What we know:
The protein is of the alpha/beta class. About 25% of the residues lie in helices and about 25% in strands.
Amino acid sequence: MTQRSDVNQLGGRSIGRVVYDSESIRLRVRQIADEITEAYPADDDLLVLGFLKGSFLFMADLVREIRRPLQIDFLIASSYADSTESSGEVRLLYDPPAELTGRTVLIVEDIIDSGLTLERLVPRLEARGPKRVDVCTLLHKRLAGRGVEARWVGFDAPNDFLVGYGLDYAEDFRHLPYIASL
Ligand code: IMP
Ligand code: MG
């Protein structure tokens, strides 16, 4: 794959093996979107809330395959600085101004690792009176088994640090159309 050699030295780190290629991602995203389309009653007021920045490509691909009315907003949370380890601190840098009362909120996340980010943030959203809050994550490392259950999981990820398709290492590699290990 020629484009790999163009980017594999960014951030002082090298890309390892491709874990999910773009075709596998595309097929799985379509399956999940079909399930989401079927999952909610037609009169549910669906708000899809993407966690930036990591979910931006997944979110864009997912919502284009969901065949029902919905609205979109984003959350910006930061728990990792320029690190591959969780610091335990979760900061909310952008909080959606959207009214949540009575609405069905679907959080779209790139990856669940320790589960800490969602464990901290979901209760804050639930406190705003939504009908329900569901989580859709592209990847799940299933390590800690803590807190919040994801209703939709794209892939059970290996316990490697992954980059691409929105996932970064120190802000590099987000644009790759596939997911690779570092
Ligand atoms: P958690 O709070 O430990 O579940 O971590 C969630 C966040 O950490 C994700 O939204 C990512 O931004 C980041 N993260 C966790 N694992 C990885 C990884 O393997 N690659 C890139 N980012 C990751
Ligand atoms: Mg990140």
